[in-house]
Amino acid sequence: KDGSKYPIIIKISSEGGEVNSGLSITSSIISAKKNGYDVIVEAYGEVMSMAVLPVIVASVRKCQPYTRFLIHNPLAFMMGYVSAEQFNRTTKEMNGILDLYKNVILEYTLVEKEMLEKSFDRDAELIFLGDEAKQLGFVDELF
Fold it and tell me: Which stretches of the chain score pLDDT less than 70?
């Protein structure tokens, strides 16, 4: 009524999941911020894979000390029986998603490109708890 824009509070605990849904949520948070809303994300339990992006793009990013984060190379999880052509098409699409995923992480956190590339090449994933999430710039504060 008074023209105030109340903050949007999102509480998240997720193993990640479908890429397009995660990118849509991430885009919605960025859009809300551009429209003058503060978006506060509180991370609980686990924040993995695609669920990381909505956390890191928020205005205020919080997590518990034992919130477990995981970022990974989605190509590491391709399995099954596919033709060479299917494999090549899927690899091309997944590389595009990987580039987008890495670019958002690099833009919104303190992770350096070398560290990200090395962790994805060596182990295909990087797992850390709240304190390290704060050090790496994934969150602003612990609660």
Answer: 1-3, 75-82, 123
Question: DSSP secondary-structure letter at 7?
Answer: P
Q: What is the pLDDT of residue 1?
A: 53
Identity of residue 110: L
Q: How far apart are CA 139 and CA 65, in angstroms?
A: 11
Q: Residue 49 CA to chain centroid, in angstroms?
A: 6
Rounded-to-integer distance, Cα 95 and Cα 91, Å: 6
pLDDT at position 118 is: 85
Helix, strand or coil for residue 96? helix
State the Cα–Cα distance between residues 94 and 41, nearest whole angstrom.
Answer: 27
What is the chain written as a DSSP string?
--S--PPEEEEEEE----HHHHHHHHHHHHHHHHTT--EEEEEEEEEEGGGHHHHHTSSEEEE-TT-EEEEE-GGGG--S---HHHHHHHHHHHHHHHHHHHHHHHHHSS--HHHHHHHHHHTSEEEE-HHHHHHTTS-SEE-
